[in-house]
Amino acid sequence: MSLDYFPENDIFISLFGLIGGGLLLYLLLFFGLKSIFRQFERDIALVTLNISRYPILVIFTIFGLKYSLRNLPPSQALEFLIKILHSSIIIVISYWSIKIFIQVINYYLKEYTNRTEAMWDDVLLPILEAVIPAIIGILGGAFVLKTFGFDLKGIWVALGGVTFVIGFALQDILANFFSGIVLLIDTPFRFGDILSLENGTVGMLKKIGVRVTHLYIFNTHSDIYIPNSVLQGQKIINLSRPTPYCQSCVNLDIPLEYDLKQARIAMQNIVLAHPDTLGNIQQKLQFIDQFFQDPNLQEQQENGKQRLFYEDLVNEKLEEIVYFIDALVTTLQFAEKGGLTQDEMENIRQEYKGLLEIIGLRDSQENKGSFVLEESQQEDALIELVKQWYRSLIRDPNLLDEDSFIVAEEWERKINLLKSRLQKLYQKIANPQADETRLDDYMMEISKWLNEKFKQPRMKWQDPQIHIVAIDDEDSSFFVKFALNFFIDDVKLEDSKRNQRVNSQIYQEVLKYIKNLNSDSQIQQIKNDNFTIDHYAQD
């Protein structure tokens, strides 16, 4: 007895196999892998799974249908059906790719840009977010048309011609776009910097866009948008670089009859007594209660004392950290000769953990081998001291409401950047591999970044300088011109008018002191019109 062969039998067997395989795949995607991925600390695997479940099932089903139809006799209907299945796979893969890019790749790229100091990624990422899905859609449509036998050469030629015409019509927009790219790559300034334009306008950089740059103008409390090509051709002064400190000069004319030496000492102490000027912090704390006794300034001075106290602790901790890093670099340079042994690597890891402890970080999952750092919240660690310092700063009664957000955002960003750098170095130290001879270089980069980007140390040249610059003869009276040169802590605060307030307060305090300086000697008190004040700010 012979058995007849029917292709339909294979089709039914394939369909049953497809149903069984689809059911197993469904259980794996919706229950098996989901329960596993939920245990991960980061949600990237779970989000990717949620996006991929249905596309994977659809693609599996389509491939299964194609496999089931392989034994049917050739026909135009079957050929057309296979083309539809091919096109369906392309459409599903295109849709899947777009969802993966938007909800996974782009999401974590945004997270990455928030941890970096570069500006270009903050601007180029929105461009990629708009362009990449369009490119995937166009390529997917092109492959679908090709599947049905369309000749795409004519379409590409026509598309190229249309692109040329559009480019010529939009040449100004393209010029602004490429100027923006140049500004981002060359990076002469960063978000939040205070810029002085050629016409004297002073504003804060808010955003470099695809076509225009957004500035907030302090004097008019308004936003302006300058085409990138126009901005690129201007001479711009960055008042926030290389330091955010604002240099000021107050000129005072004092009668020659006064005790000039005593006046000079008093003026220097008055500048030191103001909490918003730079100088030796210990000296500032020594003089802060001796001047500015106006009841209206009491809250300013009390807040200043607290702020200076915490800043002094931060400076001391940074010095300790830099010294620790230098010692660790010396250890690494000695150990790296001839390669690191296992004992040397373990010793370096322990020393690095000591550095992390001083900074205020610890390994949250050391036993799991993931080397994830988290804040230890130690009160005497650098991170907690920095938070105490900037929190006291934002309680300054002179700050505007938006200043509090600017200060908090700036320092939290710096703390996150510090954690990110230390995290990367921790992973290199834990698994040095090819980097074992470069660990000392990475450590020196951390030290340099702390001094240049995290918090610059107080320098001697930032101390107040009081000089006699001229002697004037006016109506047979001789006056000595003093120049009070000092730095104010941050140019961007108080709508960039912090320097004007500090100058005014110092001038009034010096004026009040000088008027009473020689009262016991019955020397005629100085008149207000005998004094002149001139102040300016520069980086």
Could you please describe the fold and organization of this structure?
The chain is α+β, with helices and mostly antiparallel strands and 539 residues long. 59% of the residues lie in helices and 12% in strands. The protein is built from 16 helices and 10 strands. The strands form 3 sheets. It has a 5-stranded antiparallel sheet with strand order 4-3-2-1-5. It has a 3-stranded antiparallel sheet with strand order 6-10-9, with helices on one face. It is elongated, with a radius of gyration of 34 Å. Residues 1-5 and 520-539 have low confidence and may be disordered.
Summed up:
This protein is α+β, with helices and mostly antiparallel strands and 539 residues long.
Q: Secondary-structure blueprint of this entry?
A:
Blueprint: H1 7-37, H2 44-68, H3 76-113, H4 120-147, H5 153-169, H6 171-186, E1 194-196, E2 202-208, E3 212-217, E4 222-227, H7 228-232, E5 237-238, E6 246-255, H8 260-273, H9 281-287, H10 298-335, H11 342-359, E7 361-363, E8 373-375, H12 382-393, H13 401-430, H14 439-454, E9 465-474, E10 477-488, H15 493-496, H16 498-515
Antiparallel strand pairs: 1-2, 1-5, 2-3, 3-4, 6-10, 7-8, 9-10
Helix pairs in contact: 1-2, 2-3, 3-4, 8-9, 8-16, 9-10, 10-11, 10-12, 10-14, 11-13, 12-13, 13-14
